[in-house]
UniProtKB/TrEMBL annotation, chain A:
This is Cytochrome d ubiquinol oxidase subunit I. Pfam families: Cyt_bd_oxida_I. Residues 444-472 are annotated as: Disordered. Its main location: membrane. It comes from the Bacteria. InterPro entries: Cyt-d_ubiquinol_oxidase_su_1. The lineage of its organism: Bacteria, Pseudomonadati, Pseudomonadota, Alphaproteobacteria, Hyphomicrobiales. It is found in: Cell inner membrane; Cell membrane. One of its GO terms (molecular function) is oxidoreductase activity. Residues 463-472 have a biased composition (Basic and acidic residues). It comes from Methylobacterium aerolatum.
TrEMBL record, chain B:
Belongs to the cytochrome ubiquinol oxidase subunit 2 family. InterPro entries: Cyt-d_oxidase_su2 (IPR003317). Pfam families: Cyt_bd_oxida_II. It is a multi-pass membrane protein. The lineage of its organism: Bacteria, Pseudomonadati, Pseudomonadota, Alphaproteobacteria, Hyphomicrobiales. It is found in: Cell membrane. GO terms for molecular function: oxidoreductase activity. Keywords: Cell membrane, Membrane, Oxidoreductase, Transmembrane, Transmembrane helix. The keyword Cell membrane applies. It comes from the Bacteria. This is Cytochrome d ubiquinol oxidase subunit II.
Length: 472, 335
């Protein structure tokens, strides 16, 4: 029995590790693809050199980030079967087709348009090239659409029946795909992708502004990123609030854990700012709280009742401290993003956007904040779903493969070692590219380079007169 | 109209097609990875790499489609097979990751090229070996109770599965070598031709050994191969293997350039057909049939709508880009 628990914990650790590594790459790709689309669109509309320079600067980084997203995603597509076979058997009829649609559409996109986007500018001309960029941007969104639909169904399942073998079977595909939490999650996640990318672009701009204030490319990318942040950070807070209310409606236990509400509050629940949740004792120690504020936020009334975890059987509690803290990390970073956006507006108003070193240092420090917030938000929603894989219907302990602990321990070790080595190299390479300052007449991706991302390099992008260079 | 066709069989064929498409397309570039250390660093290695550079990546997506498709339309098979073959599957994934990035980092990081060359070969060998072991372990039968795998985590490791693993490594190397005979010239082509001869002999030997062992693994295999009247049909497979092998060696010695690669693919196709004869209509050989493992009709139809549009588009596109990259390649690239 103990061995089974260990194997389960190890399998969860492995899934958490591989997906946390994976999630940062697609988030960056979604945001960056849209940014590249905007840059190219602005270049086509205005003809200004700086836009195409920035496009070429960022596309090199995009290629590597996308490549790492693809290879780390390969692992995810098999892991449902290797480590979560009971889950796979039971949910396959409902979730399998959604994921297969993601594979088919992602493959189609990858083979069809990435190569043109990466290599094809001189061959197909700017307008067709812009179309390819547009398609890639839409494609990344499409990929997010399917996988978030899958994830949302696990949180708020509907449109299914159960067959005698214990499998979930589809009854209404529309209801399955557009399940109740899906629209909120999709908006929240796509905005998170934009914010994350804006923070990275802003940090790179800030880094170069700190060294060379007059660099036109650095100024432009910093300004664009700060606009994005100033607009999207408040929107994201609104979207997050709406998502939270949706969660309260469909997964109240998760909200109880996020809020640290062990006890029910029949006449107005306090907002616990900080404290140490104690799962065993069922209380938050050293709580710093604002009376009635939680009821105001969640129920829009000071004295509205809010139920606590004491209304839920203990075996259905998620691990409260993890959810409590990851939620606070996400929200705090969101507030800092709002602050940075506000700061940039102030600097802009004072005409010191490119000169105010404190702003640049702040932006630089916030560079990785989006990734941290995304992972924290993901932990909040996924750990908050525990102890179920399909909320309320299939327990995590009953989802795992019949594997022995040493097997999972060995694979987890291998994943950790290889991911850090391989993706560490890739991230170093991206940082290396970011450290170079943007300049006029920026080169695109070197011709002839074997780019992992390019899929099957499509014919129109290949210049018949250009020889593929040896791997020099 | 759909009601009259057994969609389960349609889907079994689609998944089989995806798996074979993967073997055809990723086989030769894994093979080049396996043979890589046999080529001297410099022009020959770079040329070998260049010959697969434009086409190699999209190939692996067929593997994702095979796995994803299995999850979608044969979830029970996916749920039984994956844990049973846990170690080889994980090893294959890690091998493919390593190999994939090595391909790119080798080019980006010339100072550590020797290291990335080792990673490229290591990843390719591990991926090929793991795929073969997976196949062998599946063929020799896995223990199932209820709807789950019931064996231990080393069950996959037997002399038979190792033999099949070795066979896949040798076979992929053969595909890689004959691909180079087709796509290159000069000293690299000569070297590849010599390899093709030895690897051809080794591949035929492994095919014979695996074929001889397989009918004894499982009573049903024996029945499917050797009962009248189906034996009249199944006997054609080994006959065709003999014909293809004969032609292969003859043409290779006569200096043919394209046909050896096509005949090597033919050997793979015949082995694949033989595999189909052994296991059809099971999806977990001897344990679970495709109908037992199939997802409900609604799932099959929903996915078939998308697959029947997207798979042909992907295929057409793939064919087109192979066509563009036809012809000889050298260190300076494609002509």
């Amino acid at each position: 029995m103990l061995a089974n628990i260990d194997a389960l914990l190890l399998a969860r650790a492995q899934f958490g590790f591989t997906v946390a590594f994976h999630i940062v790459f697609p988030v960056f790709s979604i945001g960056l693809a849209s940014y590249l689309m905007v840059l190219e669109g602005l270049w086509l509309a205005t003809g200004r050199q700086v836009f195409i320079d920035l496009f070429r600067y960022w596309i090199k980084i995009f290629a590597i980030g996308f490549a790492m997203g693809v290879v780390s995603g390969l692992v995810m597509s098999y892991q449902f079967g290797t480590n979560w076979s009971v889950y796979a058997d039971k949910t396959g009829p409902v979730l399998g087709p959604l994921m297969a649609y993601e594979v088919l559409s992602a493959f189609f996109l990858e083979a069809g348009f990435l190569g043109v986007m990466l290599f094809g500018m001189t061959k197909v001309g700017p307008r067709l090239h812009f179309l390819a960029t547009l398609m890639v941007a839409i494609g990344t969104f499409f990929s997010a659409f399917w996988i978030l639909s899958v994830n949302s169904w696990m949180q708020t399942p509907q449109g299914y029946a159960t067959n005698p073998a214990g499998q979930f079977v589809p009854v209404d595909w529309w209801a399955i795909v557009f399940n109740p939490s899906f629209p909120y999650r999709l908006v929240h996640m796509v905005l998170a992708a934009y914010l994350t990318t804006a923070l990275v672009v802003g940090a790179v701009g800030a880094w170069h502004l700190l060294r060379e204030r007059t660099n036109e490319g650095a100024r432009m990318m910093f300004s664009m990123a700060m606009w994005m942040l100033a607009v999207v950070a408040p929107l994201q807070i609104l979207a997050g609030d709406a998502h939270g209310l949706n969660t309260l409606e469909h997964q109240p236990t998760k909200v109880m854990a996020m809020e640290g509400h062990f006890e029910s509050h029949p006449d107005g629940a306090p907002l616990i700012l900080f404290g140490l949740p104690d799962q065993e004792a069922g209380m938050v120690r050293y709580a710093v709280e604002v009376p009635k504020l939680s009821s105001l936020i969640l129920k829009h009334g000071l004295n509205e009742p809010l139920k606590g975890l004491d209304s839920v059987p203990r075996e259905n509690w998620p691990p409260v401290p993890v959810v409590f803290w990851s939620f606070r990390v996400m929200v705090s970073l969101g507030m800092l993003m709002l602050l940075l956006g506000g700061f940039s507006l102030l600097a802009r108003y004072k005409g010191r956007l490119y000169e105010w070193a404190a702003l640049h240092r702040f932006a630089l420090a916030m560079g990785p904040a989006g990734f941290v917030a995304v992972v924290a938000g993901w932990i909040t929603t996924e750990v908050g779903r525990q102890p179920f894989t399909v909320y309320g219907l299939l327990r995590t302990a009953e989802s795992a493969s019949p594997l022995q602990a040493p097997a999972v321990a060995a694979s987890l070790t291998a994943f950790v070692l290889i991911y850090f080595a391989v993706f560490g190299m890739g991230i170093l390479y991206i940082l290396h590219l970011m450290a170079k300052s943007p300049h006029r007449g920026e080169h695109g991706i070197e011709p002839g380079a074997p780019i992992r991302t390019a899929g099957i390099t499509p014919a129109p992008s290949v210049d018949p007169d250009r020889h593929l260079q040896p791997a020099e | 109209m759909l009601a009259n066709i057994d969609l389960t069989v349609v889907w079994a064929l689609i998944i089989a097609f995806a798996v074979f498409a993967y073997i055809v397309m990723d086989g030769f570039d894994l093979g080049i990875g396996i043979l890589f250390p046999a080529f001297p660093p410099g022009i020959e290695r770079d040329t070998a790499m260049n010959s697969i550079a434009p086409v190699w990546d999209g190939n692996e997506t067929w593997l994702v489609l095979g796995g994803g498709g299995l999850f979608a339309v044969f979830p029970l098979a996916y749920a039984v097979i994956m844990p049973a073959l846990y170690a080889p599957i994980i090893a294959m994934l890690l091998g493919l990751i390593f190999r994939g990035v090595a391909f790119e980092f080798r080019w980006r990081d010339p100072r550590h090229r020797a290291l990335w060359d080792v990673a490229f070969t290591g990843g390719s060998v591990v991926a090929a070996l793991a795929q073969g072991i997976t196949l062998g372990a599946l063929l020799q039968g896995i223990k199932v109770e209820g709807r789950a795998y019931a064996g231990g985590w080393w069950d996959w490791l037997t002399p038979f599965s190792l033999l099949v693993g070795l066979g896949i490594v040798v076979g992929y190397a053969l595909l890689g070598a004959t691909w180079l005979v087709m796509r290159t010239e000069g000293s690299l082509q000569d070297r590849a031709r010599t390899f093709s001869l030895w690897l051809g002999a080794a591949t035929v030997a492994v095919i014979a050994a695996v074929s001889a062992a397989t009918p004894f693994l499982e009573g049903k295999y024996w029945e499917r191969w050797f009962t009248m009247p189906s034996v009249l049909l199944t006997a054609q497979v080994p006959l065709l293997v003999a014909v293809a092998s004969f032609l292969y060696f003859r043409l290779l010695r006569n200096g043919a350039e394209r046909t050896p690669f096509l005949l090597a693919l033919g050997l793979f196709l015949l082995s694949f057909v033989g595999l189909g004869i052994s296991i059809f209509p099971d999806v977990v050989p001897g344990r679970i049939t495709i109908w037992e493992a199939a997802a409900p009709h609604a799932s099959q139809v929903f996915l078939l709508v998308g697959a029947s549009v997207l798979i042909p588009v992907i295929l057409a596109y793939t064919a087109y880009s192979y066509w563009v990259f036809r012809g000889k390649v050298d260190a300076a690239g494609y002509h």
